[in-house]
Amino acid sequence: MASMATSEMIFFIATLVLSVAVVGVLGGQTTHLALSMQNSAQDTSGMIQTDFSIINDPSQIPYSNGYVFYIKNTGSDGFDFTNTTVSVLINGTIVPQSDLKFTSPSGSGELMPGQVGEIVVNVTLPQGYNQIEVSLINGVSKNMEFQV
Fold it and tell me: The whole model's pTM is what?
């Protein structure tokens, strides 16, 4: 009888050790999943709070030492507005940094909510319809078809 109680005690302790190990693994995985979801939510929140629009009239793009495009920050956060943080593609071809000039109202290189900045693109464009795509460093992008 005593040997039966001892073997049951060993099985009980082994079951407890195994249960604790499983709980530890599942707890670690749950923590990892929760942190991943939190990071993803922060990235998405940043993209939602950072937004802009290209506010030109597509049929009348001004020209002053290059085509002038007006960018309005419609988000709730400011963003860097320089040739190293904003990419410009015209007709699917990236415009070199040397052919771009960025102007923000404060001259600080940052476009705050509600402000309108200018991108001057000094390239030769074919007559007719063209397309511009402006992308921020965080992945937010807008495009517009315009006529030259």
Answer: 0.72
